[in-house]
Amino acid sequence: MDIATEVRTKGRQAREAARLLANLGTGQKNEALLSMARALEEEKDFILAANARDMAAGQEKGLSRALLDRLLLNEKRIQDMAAGLRELAALPDPIGQVTSMWTRPNGLQIGRMRVPLGVIGIIYEARPNVTVDAAGLCLKTGNAVILRGGSEAFNSNRALTQVISRAATAAGAPTGVIQLIETTEREAVNLLLRANEYLDVLIPRGGAGLIRAVVQNATVPVIETGVGNCHVYVDAEADLAMAQRIVINAKTQRPGVCNAMETLLVHEKVAPAFLPPLAAALKEKGVTVRGCERTREFIPWAEAATEEDWATEYLDLILAIRVVDSFAAALEHIHTYGTKHSEAIVTENYQRAREFLARVDAAAVYVNASTRFTDGYEFGFGAEIGISTQKLHARGPMGPEQLTTFKYIIFGSGQIRQ
Amino acid sequence: MDIATEVRTKGRQAREAARLLANLGTGQKNEALLSMARALEEEKDFILAANARDMAAGQEKGLSRALLDRLLLNEKRIQDMAAGLRELAALPDPIGQVTSMWTRPNGLQIGRMRVPLGVIGIIYEARPNVTVDAAGLCLKTGNAVILRGGSEAFNSNRALTQVISRAATAAGAPTGVIQLIETTEREAVNLLLRANEYLDVLIPRGGAGLIRAVVQNATVPVIETGVGNCHVYVDAEADLAMAQRIVINAKTQRPGVCNAMETLLVHEKVAPAFLPPLAAALKEKGVTVRGCERTREFIPWAEAATEEDWATEYLDLILAIRVVDSFAAALEHIHTYGTKHSEAIVTENYQRAREFLARVDAAAVYVNASTRFTDGYEFGFGAEIGISTQKLHARGPMGPEQLTTFKYIIFGSGQIRQ
Q1: What ipTM, to 2 d.p.?
Q2: What does the alpha-carbon distance between residue A145 and residue A150 come to, in Å, rounded to a whole number?
Q3: Considering the domain A230-373 in this protein, what is its CATH number?
Q4: Which of A185, A204, A214, A284 is deepest in the core (most CB within 10 A)?
Q5: Number of residue pairs across A and B with CB atoms under 8 Å?
Q6: pTM given for the model
């Protein structure tokens, strides 16, 4: 089967499956999720054997330790994926919810009802767990899915989708709701980007390069995820002990993710009291500091920050620090360098807390909390398929509701338009 | 100024204006709208003179009567535009609404607040009223706008935007919230399609060709509007008098718009009683009928419908009619040929009414009412900028709320992630 034929065939199957899935009851969808969870556990040897082939090839290819760790499956990770599917089954079903209903003067009763998007395409890197998480969340929300994972995880992804799609169908889900593009050539991605006939939306998950390429070339609507150049601003009236806890948490609790802080802004009034003890705590955690000139007065071991540092998402134990002379300068810095992901102020001042919330344009704006909370689970959505950094349709953590659209259902009694 | 410089300059101005506008109070925005309405009335001679130049050029160019009618401004139409702006001022402001708020077990209080999208690009044909309607609705919802109207309306659009943007600024709106791309060359559109730095969303309004070109070439997120191949299905248990009223209304009340019916589906059981009197009524309204073979048994003067007719959006006094042998066949026809815009069933059967609402995938699904109600005003939104035919972000009539996004505002007391 050539690549174009594969995309077209799987696209059609997914489209047809989506139509049936849209009207499957909540109970049946949950049965399918539970069946998928059981199958992962029962067929773990088959899955681990496939993963071992990917790991061997990856080692031979010289993949970095971080990449190999993402690629690795073991019993514990399979258990986690199964547990994730069971959690999904326990969540409320957003499909069919009528979120509002009103009656017009002419008697027309208009309701807004949540329905699935249809077919969702997901392009991601070599992380086999995404295969199961994404397929489960799409099924929960009544969407068929076309998956295209990184080629290094080819065998793992194929084994996983075989196991879970067989299990879903056995439990009554339509055949073809979970599709995996098996060709590892780049051309498959190009075809997906323009498969408007088969895909209602594309969600790229991965590095900045992948996402840029998708946005630049897709004709299918895209939900952008990913880049987070997040800031914490420590105000002149901050509780400095709280500020230190938040800064350390936002930088070091998990530095490699998009909601980690990358630049700290400190009001000049509190810099002398705040920075020296913070510096000691950062050093203890192994954080490299790149500071502006005034920062380096208080942290002599900090490297000199350049313009580029303000714009960089390190995703690492590196922190840029800038001392600002006003609240307005902090807002301006965030406006200039921020990526509208997650931004926090630490302050005890009522007025500035309100202004920060109002003026900062980002998916999540915090007062007195770590930016690390921008996450579907932490927000209470029960699941997450990524964090949208765009403004259209979904913004911030994407849970089940963000994978739905709506239709208007209109109850008349013979109304015609005058 | 070359084209690229114009787009870049106006894009930057709009971006900067949007930032200020996002935090303008409701009262100030409404003042600006009222000021714009007054200015239109006061400077009507200036506007009409500009329009007269477009009309003369259009006549010379041999534009069709329909196009010239769209292009024409007169005192009444200027009054209507002013009235539209005053109605916008009277509508509630969606910006700043917190649509939900909840508290997490760790005490974080998370709210979802409506905020403007930012800068909206609108590409449209030679209809000067769109210039004012779109600028007003964007201002109401806190968005800056970059307008690119059809070249035939160049002088009218320039005069209108001069008048309204001067009036908006005089009433306290930021300079640059309303931008008009003045070059009439196509290249300007191409530049807008890829102006991701300046535009948060593009809304093309116009014919199928324009919309296709935008979807195929834009890297800026697009909201598709327009195509509506809408159906009315007359069920075996329909009230036939009601069905006839609805069919005549959906086809003839205003045939040139996207929510008009294009194909009528009739259950075979009622075809003999329903079609002959309907045919007489259609004839009286000057409607041409293209029917399937069975339709032509009852309407001998109908032309023979071809496969192409089922897929055609006539936007004219032409109706395709097909007799179907079951409810399922009607659903299948709509699934195959529909464009997911507006679909109606006429029935007295409870179960089939419910099934139609559940199974038909369209922006608006009706029981016992005309498809012509798919409209922002008829839905009670108070304004409209088009009807979205896509599933992402906005579906169906786009009122003020559809021109907004949201951000999460999070109130903490020092929370850090474990």
Answers
A1: 0.94
A2: 16
A3: 3.40.309.10
A4: A204
A5: 183
A6: 0.93
